[in-house]
Structures are given as structure tokens and as C-alpha cells.
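The material for today's practical consists of a large collection of protein records. There is nothing in a record beyond a sequence line and a structure line. As an example, a complete record with its sequence and its C-alpha cells follows:
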Amino acid sequence: MEVILTHELTDFDAFASAVAAQKLYPGAEIVFGRRVAPALRDYLALHRDRFRTLRYTDIDQRAVTRVILVDHRRKSRLGVFGGILQRLEAGDETLDVHLFDHHPAVGPDDVVGSYELVEAVGSATTLLVERIKALGLAVDVEEATLFALGIYADTGSLTYASTSGRDARAVGWLLDQGGRLKTVNRYLRPAFTASQRELIKRVLTAVETHDFAGAAVGIACVKLDKMVGGLAEITTAVAGFDDHLALFVFYDIGDKQVQVVARGTSPVVNVGERLAPLGGGGHAGAAAANVKGACAAELIDRLVRGFKAEPPKPRRVDDVMSRLVRTIAPDTPLVELSHSLRVWRHTGVPVVRDGGVVGIVSRRDVERAEADGRMHLPVSSCMSRPVHTTRPDASLEDALREMERHNVGRLPVLDGARLVGILTRSDVRGVLYGPSPERDALSTSA
């Protein structure tokens, strides 16, 4: 018997990976553990007869000859498949294992397979879709939609930091095969019940901000009398309102267990790596841990100590700012400034008097003055005040929010009262999109 297994609390990426694996291994049976994510359960209510599955109680684990493991490779997450785990630990040579996963290795807890396809993409489904495409296998509309749903669910609709171009290309191919985005959206945007909406409010209220080396991380702890469905979706919804680089929510469920769900919005904080010491799994943008018989306060303390011992390394302003700063005096005629901006290829400069920044003037300010016939006036007549500034040790995220909040294209960087650099739109775009010849040539323009 060949079986396709995935992790407990099967989600869309896990199930889509399993169905895709079945196309590569037509004789294998998809076998679920105890739990299925609520959104997937709703999907299966309509599609159960289309995609056949078995429960773990339906199989004899001693009779399995091959395990196709998708979307995880952790021995500790085999859960109810203890018979298979025992055979793996005993080195049973009659049990063959094939792996398809996109999570990073964790060491001794990793299952080892005779065939392994483990690569850093945003979704395990992507790896299998690529194999299906390469082999020229046919994919029908319902399969294409399910596979797209799996990729979208595990990449935050292609927005998580762990998303790769391969994920996007796989989705593009699936849409060419007839995948229905309308159906994808139906299951990606669950309708929350009244109790779930109330829990979202509770989590939002409970979130506390922790600053780890300039990285803002949100941590919340919420006490629940019993398990509530859709904790992953609830955490995702809260993260959408949140302004942190990562959010960790500890759902303290009675005296039985603590369910930890984490979402990351920046590569600075890899939530999968941060939850690994708590027994969790996942990737940079989404991770979870289910810790039985644990104290939520102790788990939070372990998480915080981990952050303090190995703090994130967010980019700082002085990592990317331009240190060569052209300045202009407030009494300089605008006509002279216009010429200087063209020569310097700048779109704006700080206005400095006696070593202090007193204003900012942009090319747009000069163009307005020229249209009004005011080019004979000094720079001080059209410079912007007050001046929004930043510090060299400020995080790049904070500086970017400052630029967005005030809709400005450049921030003078002050060390005390001393001007030590300038951060421009081009500098920030260089981080967001990578270097380019044009950006390097105009590194101090905005």
C-alpha cells in the first residue's frame, strides 16, 4: 500500500500538495490525520467526492510500503501515524519514503527519504505542479483551481516574503489550465462567525509591541475556554490590521494546550525559525505550534528570550543612506538652485543655515516658482517647513513609515543636530527592488 501523508491540521497547501502528488503516484491513497483546517473542511463539503481521502483509522500502518510525505518532513509532526514513525526509527527497509517539502531543515527531527524534492519556494504545491507540468500530465479545471488555492493560501496570495517567482509562474500556468480565481477567492476569504469576530477584537486588544534591535514584533496571549475553529484565519486577519514585522498569537486553551499561530510580513523576522524551538513548524511568513500541557506565559518567555539572544537584524538608515549630501543656503536665488539641481541630478536638497537644517526644497517647488515668475526670489521663499528627519540608527522600516506618513521624498539624517546623510526614495527602492544601473547613477535623487 502507498499512502500520501501530510501534517496534522491539514490546510489548503497540504491538501493541494497531496492531490498533486496523487497525480504523480496514481496508486497512492491520501490519508488524513485527526484534524482538518476549517476553511478546508468547508471546501471538502463540496469536493469530497471529487478528491477521495481516507482517515488514519482506515489503514494498516504495518502494511504501508511507501510513504509520500508532502508539505512537511518532521518526525514529531507525524502524530497519529505512530506505526509508521516506529518503522522509520527502526530503519525498516521495507518502507520507502519520498519527500516533497518547502520548509527548511531542522536536523535530527527530519525524515530522510530515498527521494527528496525540498526547495525554498513559497508553497509545497508549487514543487509538485512543476513536476506535473514537466511530465506533461493533464490538469482539469477543479485540480487547477485547488492547486492555485494551495499556492495562494501558503504565500498570502503571492505577498509573503517567502514567495518566489516559481510560485507565481506555477499559478500562471494553472490559470492557463482553467483555474478559477472566483472559487479561489471564495475559500481564501472566509466569512467569520460572530464568535470569531469577537476573538479578532480580543486579539487586537491583547497585542503588545516588543522592540528587538529595532524590529517591532507583536505578541498576544488570549485565554480560550475551548478550541475555536479558524485560528489561522483569525491571526491572518489581525496581522492585516497590524503594523508589526511579525505577529505571534498564543491561544491558551484551558489546561490542555497552547496553540501558537504566527504571521510574518518582513524577511527580517522568520516566524518559522522562531517557533521551531517551541516545537512548531512553518516558513518565513506563516508558522504554528501546538504545545500540549504547556503554560502560555512560559512559552512567551521562551520566545522573548530567543529574540533577545538572537535579535533580528533589520536594515538601519545608515546602512542605505547617502552620505554625500548636497545642501543649499536659504538666501540662494532659485534660478541658481535650478541650475544646481540639473548638474547634481537631484530632485531636492536640504536647506542649511549655520550647520542646521532649516528646510527642504524640491524640484517641484522650483518648477512652481518658475511658473509663477518667482525665480528671482531666494530658496527660503518656497522651501518646505517643518523638516521631517530621521536618525542613522533608526530602522529602515520606521524611516519608510515616516516618509509614507508625511508624503515626503527625502529625510535628512541627523546625528544630534549634525547632518550626516540623507535618505531618499531611491535609497529605499534600492532595498525593496535591488540595485539597478539607473538607481546607482541616481542614488541621491528621489
In short: The chain has 17 helices and 16 strands. The mean pLDDT is 89.
